[in-house]
Design brief:
- Helix content is 45%, strand content 10%.
- The chain is of the alpha/beta class.
- The strands form 2 sheets. It has a 6-stranded mixed β-sheet with strand order 1-2-3-5-7-9, with helices on both faces.
- This is Enoyl-CoA hydratase/isomerase family protein.
- It holds the Pfam family ECH_2.
- Keywords: Hydrolase.
- It comes from Herminiimonas glaciei.
């Protein structure tokens, strides 16, 4: 059991509180295992009617996976590290699948930073589940910034956002706020963070199992405080849909280059800072994932993440951003134009035969 996960059950409401302040609740392998164990046990426990996941930290829900651990393992600084790295992604993706299909209401209070792996533990498609944002929510799938791709089921949920919003968010890695999250269907309701204690009190008093309705009723008075229709993504929707509708990175770049709109030019500048290889790989992932069910998306991502560490792009990205903090990653190749189809293809060639895939049991 992880010391960084607090769990309680009160009046039918099970609560998981992330509590790793020194790392903004970045997910470690013990944390992933604890979450999976608790959710697995509660799934069939008649004493548990719903689950809420939140954070003890004032500024972060979950900043993603523990990328310092990834780097240490890749550098050979941890005994048995490579096996632990393999275990981490296999178990994290299985956890994402469990949450997505959880049979009981699953309530995510996404107050503060919600990035990467944090998105993975907040996105449930169950009809009764609900995702809550606050004025401090800062949400992103920023993996291309560290030489990775939008994993934890990112290919699945990004490819299903309205228009090309998911393509834009996956390829740019940009951070958005609560209004954007609501507009893009990455969240369901807005509640001011000062009202979260009152919301928790309400949830422990729900007796009819209608948790989603109770939260929607609680959040209704605050709708006027936030305007998804005037969010950044809403204002730039036509531009995003036009430029990111292409299936080739070169076409997206050419489209942005031809547009002198400040947002288009800023977006072009951002793309040129990310890993050129992973921009290409991520676009291919998002397009493929649009035609796949979640289990197949996660199996695909499990192969892709293995290839990322084999290539070394992720290790270099983490080094530049987090370890040395020089923000000058030496991407391979260095530019978007240098990426070839032959470089992209290996990321989609399974590392295992179907019968031996570590996520073969997902359905």
């Amino acid at each position: 059991m992880s010391e960084h996960i607090r769990s309680t059950v009160e009046n039918g409401l099970a609560r998981l509180t992330l509590n790793r302040p020194e790392a903004m609740n970045s997910l470690s392998l013990p944390m992933v295992r604890t979450l999976a164990e608790k959710l697995g046990a509660w799934e069939h426990d008649p004493a548990v009617r719903a689950v809420v996941i939140d954070s003890s930290l004032p500024k972060a829900f979950c900043a993603g996976g523990d990328i310092r651990f990834f780097h240490e393992v890749a550098q050979g600084g941890l005994t048995g590290g490579s096996a632990l790295l393999e275990d981490f992604f296999t178990e994290e993706y299985a956890l994402n699948h469990l949450i997505h299909h959880y049979p009981k209401p699953y309530i995510a209070l996404m107050d503060g930073i919600v990035m990467g792996g944090g998105m993975g533990i907040a996105q449930s498609s169950a009809a009764a589940s609900i995702r809550v944002v606050t004025e401090r929510t800062r949400m992103a799938m920023p993996e291309v910034n560290i030489g990775l791709f939008p994993d934890v089921g990112g290919g699945y949920f990004l490819s299903r956002l309205p228009g090309e919003l998911g393509t834009y968010l996956g390829l740019s890695g940009e951070i958005v706020g609560a209004a954007d999250a609501l507009y893009a269907n990455l969240a369901d309701v807005y509640v001011p963070r000062t009202e979260l204690p009152a919301l928790m009190n309400l949830l422990t008093s729900v007796k009819d199992g209608q948790y989603r309705q109770a939260i929607e009723n609680f959040a209704a008075p605050f709708k006027s405080q936030i305007d998804p229709a005037n969010s950044l993504l809403a204002r730039q929707r036509a531009l995003i849909d036009r430029h990111f509708a292409h299936d080739e990175v070169a076409a997206i770049v050419a489209s942005l280059t031809s547009d002198d709109d400040p947002f288009a030019q800023k977006t072009l500048e951002i793309l040129h800072k990310r890993s050129p290889l992973m921009i290409h790989v991520s676009l291919e992932q998002i397009r493929r994932s649009a035609k796949l069910e979640l289990a197949d998306c996660l199996r695909l991502e499990r192969t892709m993440v293995r290839r990322c560490f084999e290539h070394g792009e992720t290790v270099e990205g983490i080094r530049a951003l987090v370890i040395d903090k020089d923000n000058t990653p030496q991407w391979r190749p260095a530019t978007l134009k240098e990426v070839t189809p032959e470089m992209i293809a290996p990321f989609f060639e399974s590392a295992w035969p179907d019968y031996a895939h570590p996520l073969r049991a997902l359905n």
